[in-house]
Design a protein that fits this description.
single chain, about 60% helix, about 0% strand
């Protein structure tokens, strides 16, 4: 999750917290939240890659 852009990471945290409240384990909630945040980012932003680019 740390490699996501801030806006996508914030969305993933919101999703993960909601899943935790519904009884999901941490590991499962993070996996689902990361996937859903990536999809959300791609659907709502011009830039399609939700991950940060590594500068060399």
């Amino acid at each position: 999750m740390k490699n996501l852009k801030k806006v996508a990471r914030d969305k993933a945290v919101d999703i993960a917290n909601a899943l935790k409240e519904k009884g999901y384990s941490d590991q499962r909630a993070i996996a689902i939240a990361t996937e859903q945040a990536e999809k959300w980012y791609q659907d709502h932003h011009d830039q399609r890659d939700p991950f940060k680019k590594n500068k060399s």
